[in-house]
Amino acid sequence: MANPLVELKRLGQSVWYDNLNRELIKTGALQRMVDEDGVSGGTSNPSIFEKAVGASDAYDEHLGEIVRDGVSLDEVFDALTVTDVALSADIFRPIYDATNHADGYASLEVSPTLAYDTQSTTQDAKRLFAALSRPNAMIKIPGTPEGLPAIQHCLAEGLNINITLLFGVDNYEKVALAYIKALETRAAGGEPLDRVASVASFFVSRVDTMIDDRLNALIAAAKSDLEKRRLEALRGKAGVANARIAYERYRELFSGPRWEALAAKGARVQRCLWASTSTKNPEYRDVIYVEELIGPDTINTMPQNTLDAFREHGVVAQTLTEGVAEAHAHVQELAAAGIDLREVTDELQVQGVKLFADSFAKARATVETKRARVLAQKVGAGAAGD
Q1: 22, 60 contact by CB (below 8 A)
Q2: Of 208, 231, 177, 220, nearest in space to 341 by CA
Q3: pTM of full prediction above 0.90
Q4: C-beta separation of 242 from 345 below 8 A
Q5: Distance between CA atoms of residues 138 and 216, nearest Å
Q6: Whole-angstrom Cα distance, residue 198 to residue 179?
Q7: Are 350 and 326 in contact (CB under 8 A)?
Q8: Cα–Cα distance for residue pair 273/58, rounded to 1 Å
Q9: Which long-range contacts (CB under 8 A, 24 or more apart) does 340-343 make?
Q10: What is the distance between the terminal CA atoms of the chain, rounded to a whole angstrom?
């Protein structure tokens, strides 16, 4: 039987892997996902790196090579994370070449502690892009208000940018327009457009998690069975509805004379990337955030459990453009119940930045512990040699 993951490409959707790490690279597991599952790109973030470096000895050999007196924690941390993404980009490079630069990207995130600092984010993005030195590398920048100018500047400079931690449609529209404006800047300066790539990473399941919590509180306070049933019917639908509305806006923004003028000069659309697509609530289908969001010019970046589940029993059909009117109606019903989707998505972005910043701090602490251990071993070995 055909692999459903591979079948997604037939409908214009790429599968990226949401867990780039050294062990996958060293064991050949990432290459097997490319060969067997059609995985054509990948993403990393501070939370992924924190778990990977803490749980695996796959980084120990590299640590032994780079750790010595005078090498700072920042240098060690950069060496490990940049190498993870650079090696992943090398695995995806044949896809990048075969698709004429349309696919095959690996993403590395700027420090989330800089999410509200435009200048520092811009500097960090340029530094990391130069360190990766791969045409199919992407730098992830959070789509905060302060991140938007950095995103536009970096794109205008020719960096590939993955805008992360997007939750709200209004925020997404600003990100898409920043991409279009950056391309217009490049075109006005006579710079090529065909090698600049960008994706807008829209987080899905976390929307349902927060809204379901609010609905559950309303259900508990409901004064009638009818009201309870009405509220219960709203659970588990906001994430998909929100993403479908965002995709509707994508189709509007990347069409018409303004976009066509850029496309004629080689510009590529900024694809929507569905992130946070693992199912958090066991009451819901385990592949709901894949099956309900299949459509052209999109990416679904999946963690291992979602990848495995979809390979096993995923149903492939174009669903992203279905039920858009119902999606708008759902948002209105939430509002009628007292839940403002925009307020929820704004809060989720703030939470997301904090979670990533906390993971970044934990990852650095884990690397520092391992770095100190390696240094102590080297000092001990040196003393023994004396």
Answers
A1: no
A2: 208
A3: yes
A4: yes
A5: 39
A6: 8
A7: no
A8: 29
A9: 341/168, 341/207, 341/211, 341/238, 341/242, 342/168, 342/170
A10: 64
CATH of range 4-379; options 3.30.1780.10, 3.40.640.10, 3.40.50.150, 3.20.20.70: 3.20.20.70
Instruction: Identify which of 214, 90, 114 has the alpha carbon closest to the alpha carbon of residue 164.
Output: 114
Does the active-site annotation cover 370? no
Q: What three-state secondary structure class fits 255?
A: coil
Residue with tokens 């990766």: 132
User: CB neighbours of 288 closer than 8 A, spacing ≥ 6?
Assistant: 236, 240, 279
Number of C-alpha atoms within 13 angstroms, CB side, residue 294?
Answer: 21
- Are the beta carbons of 51 and 73 closer than 8 angstroms? no
Tokens of 4: 């459903």
pLDDT at position 383, please?
A: 55
Which of 26, 140, 228, 237 is catalytic? The answer is 140
Spatial separation of the C-alpha atoms in residues 13 and 289, rounded to whole Å: 13
Q: Cα–Cα distance between 4 and 224 in angstroms, integer?
A: 44
Residue 345 identity (one-letter amino acid): T
Sign of CA pseudo-dihedral 170, 337, 330, 278: positive
Sign of the Cα torsion 112, 118, 120, 122 reads positive
Helix or strand holding residue 147 (H, E): helix 147-156
Residue spans per domain, the chain: 4-379
Show Cβ contacts of residue 41 under 8 Å, excluding neighbours closer than 6 positions.
14, 16, 17, 92, 95, 103, 104, 105, 106, 107, 299, 301
Could you list the mean pLDDT of each consecutive 10-residue stretch along the chain, which spans 386 residues?
Answer: 94 96 95 97 88 85 85 91 96 98 97 96 98 98 98 98 97 98 98 97 97 98 96 97 98 98 98 96 96 98 96 97 97 98 97 94 90 79 59
